[in-house]
Write a structure and sequence with these properties.
- It contains 19 helices and 43 strands.
- It is of the alpha+beta class.
- Strand 4 and strand 5 form a beta hairpin.
- Helix 17 crosses helix 19.
- It starts with a helix and ends with a helix.
- Bound molecules: sulfanyl-(tricuprio-$l^{4}-sulfanyl)copper and dinuclear copper ion.
- The site of dinuclear copper ion (CUA) has 7 residues, from loops.
Length: 860
């Protein structure tokens, strides 16, 4: 091993305070065939249990119609957000609130349950990502969605009224004034039949500018409009910023307006569409178009939606064309807004357009030509800043924190090229596996890129992972871009469709809620009409409409029995009464395609027609507590025209009165003992000022809510006992115990949280000691803070005279002490002798340091 490697290992060990010797690391490297670079890459990406990522990635989920959320640099997947397709875990598409969102996404009345989710983008203020909202388009079906990043839920889907599909979407203007949504496969804007022969006449493209109401967090469909464009097949788009603010750019790939026809013996689309040497970059001003959208002379109404005509846009100096090299694909505005970078799929160059030059040509009305639709064409050479030869198939570009540095994906070459767009120089290239489409760098598309990492979104993985049949996962590769030489440091398979594009953001910009206000409809953000608080549970009937107001809390659903008639329309509103973080309940009814996820505070509704007689169990679908399996109930659907036999409920208990009394006394005693434990936990929490720590406070409050239920329940038990119904009294006492267990459960979690908050930090020796304590097998018998198969070691150093020396000697050679009266008593009590674990002196010393730390924090 070279000196460098040794140093590296030393550094790794020292930095992590590792207990393992560097020899162990070398052994593992050898066994697993890891190089030094691999180990370094691991150190850059490995994120130990409990440590969090610095950045969020939001990737499209391609044909899954979802959004994938993961952390960088760990590349650990955190969530799939249901967007254009149902997502059962979140109840998305199975509860009424989300069904409404998906119904709004129907295309001409047809329910479409898949989507090709494409380009995600964040809301922006002054060109910086805000982390409030995420937008994403569906290429297959012309839809655009709004995801609220407080809840990570889809809150709106708007259907494009004039396009048949969209691609150059969803790119936002610098203050999220509009979300740009460009068409792709040209088609008539109306819904009528038009033959392909009318392509130039009747087929059209365009860009829809969706108005975003930031304060409401929703697209304002009424104040949105579309700019009509020629049927050039619009491709990607980007909005201007800085000096180019107010302008936007969309490229195209079929300026030939070729219409294919293999079945008629004509060359295919692909041949005719790539015939010309240039296509067109469409340059338009959305601020002028916004004004035109208020002038009825400038637009026509198609499908109830304003479409600004090409003619009106040209007349108002709001629309221009600039040639771009062969079959362009990506268009990306530089962070300073001065340049527009365009990649050509069939060209090895990247073209850098200079916005100042473009603006000068526009202001001087210096046009080379006009196209067939009367749109002025600017001269290519006069608009260009320059071109750089990057390699085969340049597609998309993202930016670095360092001014002028860009990263461009090469689809054909399977590479990322680092280059400088100011001095037009190539700086570095790295191979990716394989065939990259989009790429991203941290906040790379904002005015202030962070850089640090690049992520390659590879279309093919081929041989990188264990084989899963002929449909291979896609590959997201993490690339370290902090040094002059780029380096791939992680491969992550994506098993969920072709994730087209992604955006990333600093984690501190995302501010999700952890629980909801009681009774929240998470899809609207407001109070749900069906909110049901404890004590308000009921079943209401009006005609054949049945409404059930249900609550969910560990570990019961209330009501537990619902009887309806065949033919009834049933709505069940369920409110999760929990306040504790992560205490989600699910609600599923067997056989009815009903499922809801009810996070703490949420109210959700499910609706169905009870059209078949029978008994339908329902239950909580999240493992929420020890008695989660008991969180259940029954829905009965009766035929009102049928006569059913009468059944008497069987006696619950066949015990004698004396036995019942015994059982009753036992549970009462258990309850009072459990209450003692709870009081000690409460005492601890109060003494240590739990209310200063918000996360702890929330759990403590939840515990108090659980505890608060005890008084009434206990009263019911006492009343039953007084009446002589010991059986009922026992059952209510059991329920008291359930509440106590739940109180203790959350209370102990809060206690553990608080302990971590207030514990003194461990020094290096104590840390090694803790490692040695586990590695040496001590923890097999001793649990700190608890009597286990060995005594609790809290305070062990104080229990003995000259404690440190005693403990040291005892661990080194325990057999010498077997006759010591104290130890002998211990051996008898635990029926176990402390064995000699052959610990090294250094380890034992460290363990003593660890035990000191335990004692220091024992008050806790
Ligand atoms: Cu280049 Cu559809 Cu954004 Cu994919 S698009 S690569
Ligand atoms: Cu609630 Cu399981």
């Amino acid at each position: 091993m070279r000196v460098g490697a040794k140093l590296l290992l030393l550094c790794l060990c020292a930095a992590a305070g590792l207990y393992a010797q560097s020899g162990d690391l070398q052994k593992i490297m050898k066994e697993r065939g890891l190089s030094e670079r691999d180990v370094l890459a691991a150190a850059k990406t490995y994120t130990p249990s409990g440590m969090k990522d610095k950045y969020y990635a939001f990737s499209s989920g391609g044909q899954s119609g979802q959004v994938i959320v993961y952390g960088i640099p760990s590349m650990r997947i955190l969530k799939y957000i249901g967007v254009f397709t149902p997502e059962p875990w979140q109840g998305y598409g199975y509860d009424e609130e989300s069904k409404k969102i998906l119904e709004n996404a129907n295309i001409r009345g047809k329910q479409v349950t898949w989507g090709d989710s494409h380009h995600p983008n964040f809301s922006e203020k002054n060109g910086e990502y805000t982390g409030d909202f995420l937008f994403i388009n569906d290429k297959a079906n012309p839809r655009i969605a709004v995801i609220d990043l407080k809840t990570f839920e889809t809150v709106q889907i708007a259907v494009n009224p004039v396009f048949k599909n969209t691609h150059g979407s969803s790119f936002v203007t610098p203050n999220t004034e509009y979300i740009l949504d460009a068409a792709q496969l040209a088609a008539p804007l109306e819904d009528d039949y038009v033959p392909i022969e009318a392509y130039e006449d009747k087929f059209r493209g365009g860009v829809t500018m969706w108005k975003f109401d930031y304060s409401k967090g929703r697209i304002d469909e009424k104040n949105s409009f579309t700019l009509e464009l020629p049927p050039y097949m619009q491709d990607l788009s980007d909005a201007g910023k800085g000096p180019s603010f107010g302008w936007a750019f969309t490229n195209s790939f079929n300026s030939e307006m070729y219409t294919g026809g293999l079945e008629r013996g004509l060359p295919p689309f692909e041949a005719g569409m790539s015939r010309n040497d240039v296509d067109f970059l469409q340059v338009y001003n959305w601020q002028i178009l916004e004004k035109l959208s208020k002038d009825p002379k400038s637009y026509k109404i198609i499908n109830g939606h304003k479409v600004i005509t090409i003619e009106a846009a040209v007349k108002a100096n709001a629309l221009f064309l600039i040639p771009e090299p062969k079959s362009p694909h990506g268009v990306d505005v530089t962070p300073d807004g001065k340049f527009i970078i365009v990649g050509g799929k069939l060209d090895s160059h990247e073209s850098v357009y200079d916005f100042a030059k473009i603006k000068k040509l526009i202001d001087a009305k210096e046009f080379a030509l006009k196209d067939a639709y009367g749109i002025p064409i600017l001269d290519l050479q006069k608009s260009l800043y320059g071109q750089v030869e990057l390699g085969l198939g340049p597609l998309h570009t993202t930016f670095d924190a360092v001014d002028g540095i860009a990263y461009t994906s090469l689809y054909v070459d399977s590479q990322i090229v680092k280059w400088n767009y100011r001095d037009l120089k190539v700086l570095d290239r790295v191979n990716v596996n394989y065939n990259i489409g989009h790429l991203d760098s941290i906040e790379g598309k904002s005015v202030k890129p962070i850089g640090k990492y690049a992520i390659a979104l590879d279309k093919l993985s081929i041989d990188r992972f264990l084989s899963v049949g002929p449909l291979h996962p896609q590959n997201h590769q993490l690339i370290d871009i902090t040094s002059p030489k780029m380096e791939v440091i992680y491969d992550m398979p994506i098993p969920l469709g072709e994730p087209h594009d992604m955006v990333s953001i600093s984690a501190d910009k995302i501010k999700p809620v952890k629980t909801l206000q009681m009774g929240t409809d998470s899809r609207s953000g407001g109070r749900h009409e069906g909110m049901t608080l404890a004590g308000q549970e009921r079943i209401e009937r009006s005609g054949n409409q049945v409404k059930v107001y249900m609550t969910a809390i560990r570990s019961h659903l209330n009501p537990e029995h619902i009887t309806v008639n065949k033919g009834d329309e049933v709505t069940i509103y369920i409110t999760n009464l929990e306040r504790a973080v992560d205490e989600t309940h699910g609600f599923g009814i067997s056989g009815l395609n009903i499922h809801a996820s009810i996070e703490p505070g949420k109210t959700v509704s499910v609706k169905f027609k009870a059209d078949k007689e029978g008994v339908y169990p329902y239950y909580c679908t999240e493992f929420c507590s020890a008695l989660h399996l008991e969180m259940m109930g029954y829905l009965y659907v009766k035929d009102p025209n049928k006569k059913y036999p009468d059944y008497k409920a069987a006696a619950i208990s066949k015990l004698s009165k004396a036995d019942l009394e015994k059982e009753y006394q036992k549970i009462v005693a258990t309850n009072s003992a459990t209450d003692g434990v709870i009081q000690s936990v409460v005492g601890f929490l109060q003494k240590n000022g739990y209310e200063k720590y918000p996360a702890v406070k929330q759990n403590v409050e939840d515990a108090f809510v659980q505890y608060g239920n005890i008084k009434d329940t206990k009263a019911k038990a006492d009343a039953a006992y007084k009446k002589g119904d010991i059986n009922q009294a026992i059952l209510w006492e059991m329920q008291v115990w359930q509440y106590m267990v739940k109180t203790a459960d959350v209370g102990l979690r809060a206690k553990a949280q608080l302990e971590r908050e207030i514990a003194t930090p461990m020094n290096a020796a104590a840390k090694s000691g803790e490692e040695a304590f586990h590695a040496g097998g001590c923890s097999g018998c001793h649990v700190v803070g608890q009597v286990s198969s060995g005594p609790d070691l809290t305070g062990v150093l104080l229990r003995h005279e000259n404690g440190e020396k005693f403990v040291y000697d005892f661990i080194i050679s325990p057999e010498k002490y077997y006759n010591n009266p104290y130890i002998d008593a211990m051996i008898k009590a635990f029926n176990l002798r402390m064995p000699n674990q052959n610990m090294k002196p250094k380890e034992v010393k460290d363990i003593i340091e660890y035990l000191k730390w335990v004692d220091e924090n024992a008050g806790i």
